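call fold(seq) -> tokens
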Amino acid sequence: MDIKGYRPEVERVSKVLETYENANNIGELGIGTSHTIPLPIYGIRRDAARIGTTHFALGRNNDIGGNTLSEIHWDMLMNQATVELDAKVVLKAGKFLI
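ret:
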């Protein structure tokens, strides 16, 4: 897993990945598509639906229909994210390319 960004956050995520079994599992992924949710981003549930945001979780997903067990399910929200799926960039800096 390639982690880039603000150094303290990269270190924090790296430590979690080293500590917990299956923490490297992408347990959940969502890309916001709603243009009606205003800025700023507060980190609340509805922010995950705002266009250009990406919500993902590391760790377990057995409690939401998946098969992976882990001690953690760590939800995260990013603004202006870049998402590549199957070698195709679908979101770049928060802008849809598809």
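The mean pLDDT is 92.
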